[in-house]
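Sample 3 of the quickstart, ligand zinc ion:
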Amino acid sequence: VFALEIQMTSAGLHLPQLGLWLDPRRAQRSEPAFVSHAHSDHTAPHREVILTEATARFMRHRLGGKRVEQILPFAERRHFAAPGGGFHLTLLPAGHIFGSAMSFIEARGESVLYTGDFKLRPGLCAEVCESAPAHGCDTLIMETTFGRPKYRFPPAAEVMAQIMRFCREALDAGATPVLMAYSLGKSQELLRGLAGTGLPVMLEKTIHKITRIHEGLGLTFPAYGLLDLAAAAGKVLLVSPQQARAPWLGEIGPVRTAVATGWALDSSCRYRSGVDAAFPLSDHADFDELIEFVERLRPRRVLTLHGFAADFAATLRELGFDARAISEDEQLTLSLGLKPERRQLPDLLPEA
Ligand SMILES: [Zn+2]
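Result:
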């Protein structure tokens, strides 16, 4: 029996007794919302948000407007007033992108850990996700984007080396290498991966702006320039996946395009994203990391969401955990009559 109620509504995850939302999709005007990170599927123009300083800055840049920001440093246990004695909330590094946080909530003698998007492998541009609260938790609400055994990523350093080789081979052949990566997080990781290679880099405007915000937060990067079509030939270009079929690409002479995403493990990824190469560099936990995380925490129950939530909950039940999917994705998939695989790979790759 659990004292804390957790509801998945069409607006998002809600803890009704605490008046608290977790990464709700729909803007909240009366109750505070914890925002784990600033990727667009986790943000909305809420009135009051609980987040890290980095997420607050990315959110200001991407959404504009004003809101009440409750900014918490990692590991500070803060009390929030609410009916029934309120709750304590502690942010922990999620290792997904810079500033991404898990939320550890304590109320009514119980604890809930909500992961948001996370990964355990140390990335080049994110804080390292520590194992999890040493004292474990009663309820774990976790993302399961890559919750099928086929998603096991090779070591990131190996993938990065392949990407650098791809760039060098393109340049040697007289083509311009174009790396397509999500503008917040993956792009900065790739840029840092290029450090020490001596390869000249140009960033598309959106990526350039977000990289500048990272610098304002104290991160350093190798030299880069703003994308200038007239001078782009012979440089490594970093652009967002939305540009995969953009007409301007044709104006810079021969190009070789690549995406960096966990979905690269799907054989259809390269074709579906219309690129020459796909590299499995992800900012999400892979299947083994998802299992490892649950085994380290040993929660009393696990609620899964995003991606292969139902499959992963079934895997956890086989391992003896009390687990079930609360993903809206599953319902959406059913209502649209789509196979989950189909939903995972739209023409424009989802952030992963
Ligand atoms: Zn994300």
